[in-house]
Design a protein that fits this description.
Blueprint: H1 2-18, E1 30-31, H2 33-42, E2 48-50, H3 51-54, E3 59-60, E4 82-84, H4 85-99, E5 103-109, H5 114-123, E6 144-151, H6 180-195, E7 198-201, E8 204-210, E9 218-219
Parallel strand pairs: 1-9, 3-5
Antiparallel strand pairs: 2-4, 5-6, 6-8, 7-8
Length: 226
């Protein structure tokens, strides 16, 4: 009996050691790798898929895998973009629509592990531009995409009000004091994304949330585990 109790204590201690604890949010609200796999088994639509595998011609510029970002350091080990399966299927429709206009998409960021959101907040806690870790981000749910438009013939980005991750007031999705080409390009992106199930974030013209985001859990899974 005593031996069984000792074994049980070690098992509980092992589970506790493996559990991830978070300072800003109840840990039960965050899914790690094991819980995520159980969720996918129950509902395959919850799978995080690599966007490039479903959309081979899409252009990636994953800034957080470089030092070219507001943190000035690498936040991801791999320059990859993941999103939930229905999100990627909606992006395929966006890409098809844009192609008829000679345009394509460039992605800056997609799924983001929750632990990275915490680092962003602790470096720059302006919640107009970084998510509050007490609530988590749509990126943490695999349901947000940061992107822009490119000309398929030249491969160049279309002129937008600001660059990606600008903390300027010009980054707002409805800011008007910009050039006509910038306004036209931003509104075209907004119109097409909205037509296929995405809503722009009011403070960031490049950030789009999938309209079904509330059906997906917050995740803290490194790219290496996907």
């Amino acid at each position: 009996m005593r031996r069984c109790l000792i074994v049980l204590v070690f098992i509980i201690a092992g589970i506790s050691a493996q559990a991830q604890h978070y300072k800003y949010i109840d840990s039960t609200k965050i899914s790690g790798t094991a819980r995520y796999k159980r969720q996918v088994k129950t509902n395959p639509d919850k799978q995080l898929v690599e966007i490039k595998q479903y959309m081979p011609t899409i252009v990636l510029d994953i800034r957080y895998a470089t030092t070219n970002n507001f943190m000035h350091r690498r936040m991801y080990r791999q320059p990859k973009a993941y999103a939930r399966l229905p999100v990627v299927k909606a992006l395929q429709q966006v890409e098809a629509d844009l192609k008829t206009r000679g345009l394509g998409l460039k992605i800056y960021d997609a799924y983001r592990p929750y632990s990275v959101t915490v680092k962003f907040y602790e470096m720059a806690s302006d919640t107009n531009f970084v998510a509050d870790p007490r609530k988590g981000s749509k990126h943490n749910r695999g349901c947000a995409i940061d992107l822009s438009l490119i000309n398929l013939r030249t491969g160049k980005e279309l002129d937008m009000p600001t660059g990606f991750d600008s903390f300027s007031k010009k980054a707002a999705a409805n800011y008007r004091a910009i050039t006509k080409p910038q306004l036209d390009n931003r509104e075209l992106l907004k119109t097409i994304m909205h037509a296929h199930g995405f809503t722009v974030l009011t403070t960031e013209w490049w950030h789009y949330d999938f309209n079904g985001w509330a059906n997906y859990e917050l995740l803290d899974i490194p790219f290496s585990a996907l």
